[in-house]
Amino acid sequence: MALLAVIVPVFALAGCFTADAAVTISGSDRVNGTVHVAMPQNATSRENLWEIPENFGDAVTVETGHSGDSRTATYTLRDLTFDEVHDLVGSAAGDAIDLELERVGGNQVSLNGKASLTRFPGSRVTLAIAFPAPVTGTNGTVDGGHTVRWTMEGGRDSTFWATSPAGSTDRDQLLLWVGLTTAAGILAALLVVLWARRDHDMRD
Fold first, then answer.
1. Measured at the alpha carbon of residue 157, what is the angle toward residues 166 and 162, in degrees to the nearest 5?
2. Are residues 148 and 162 in contact, defined by beta-carbon separation less than 8 angstroms?
3. What is the DSSP letter of 57?
4. How many CB atoms lie within 10 A of CB 37?
5. How far is CA 141 from CA 20, 61, 64, 101, 120, in A?
6. What is the DSSP string of 49-77?
7. Which of 81, 110, 140, 141 is the 20 to 30 Å CA partner of 159?
8. How many CB atoms are closer than 10 A to CB 162?
9. Total-model pTM
10. pLDDT of 87-127, one tens digit each?
11. 87 contact partners, CB below 8 Å, separation of at least 6
12. Among residues 32, 114, 130, which one has the least CA distance to residue 76?
């Protein structure tokens, strides 16, 4: 997803690298997650190849550092909409990543994507996505019902897809609450009427 889009362009000249990415899709169609990338200290740096678009503000941030013989970068995505994820991928990856993340038919989340890693032999990308409801179909490995994992090896193209019920949005939860409250009110009124009638009959 957007995390893969971050990985590919930022380290396009880095050679061999590893990346572990994880995102969560909420029932409100919001995307949150992180990606941790490690590459050799002597890898060619392209720090300015991908810049976070200004309109994302604090929604996408990056922290860089060192761990042993590797340079590291951790990207954090906060509360992005599906459209924002699409825009982020477009600005970051161009043709390197092709994906569609959308709500289908109002009640299903669909993910389809392709990662082109042919230029990065020896690299490895692990992607985990947690859906708002149990996964109903995927070409990845399902973990715990809601989470799908893919491991994509460098030197080749990989596809990834998954589908899941969309879960309840905030609006759905509000409508459910209103419905339950209304039903409770009607039931209470009916009980009052029945009690009053029973009391009247007993007096007669």
1. 15
2. yes
3. G
4. 25
5. 15, 28, 30, 18, 23
6. SS---GGGGGGEEEEEEEETTEEEEEEEE
7. 81
8. 23
9. 0.72
10. 776 666 556 667 788 998 878 999 998 888 888 788 888 88
11. 53
12. 32
Q: Look at the block and give the residue holding tokens 């994302």.
A: 56
134 against 18, higher pLDDT: 134
Question: Cα 196 to the chain's mean position, in Å?
Answer: 55
Give the residue ranges of DSSP H helices in 27-107.
Answer: 82-93
pLDDT at 28 over 60: yes
84 SS3 class: helix
Q: Which residue type is seen at 107?
A: N
Report, as an integer, the average pLDDT of 65-77.
83
- How far apart CA 153 and CA 120 sit, in angstroms, is 9
3-state SS assignment for residue 200: helix
* Over residues 191-202, mean pLDDT: 57
Between 143 and 45, name the one with better pLDDT.
143
Instruction: Report d(CA 167, CA 163) in Å as an integer.
Output: 12
Spatial CB neighbours of 108, under 8 Å, sequence gap ≥ 6:
163, 164, 165, 166
Residues 6+ apart with CB under 8 A from 27: 132, 133, 166, 167, 168, 169, 170, 172
What is the per-residue pLDDT across 129-179, written as a single tens digit (0 to 9) for each? 999 899 999 999 999 889 999 998 888 999 999 999 986 555 544 443 444
Residue 47 is predicted with a pLDDT of 43
What ranges in 57-143 are assigned the alpha helix state H?
82-93
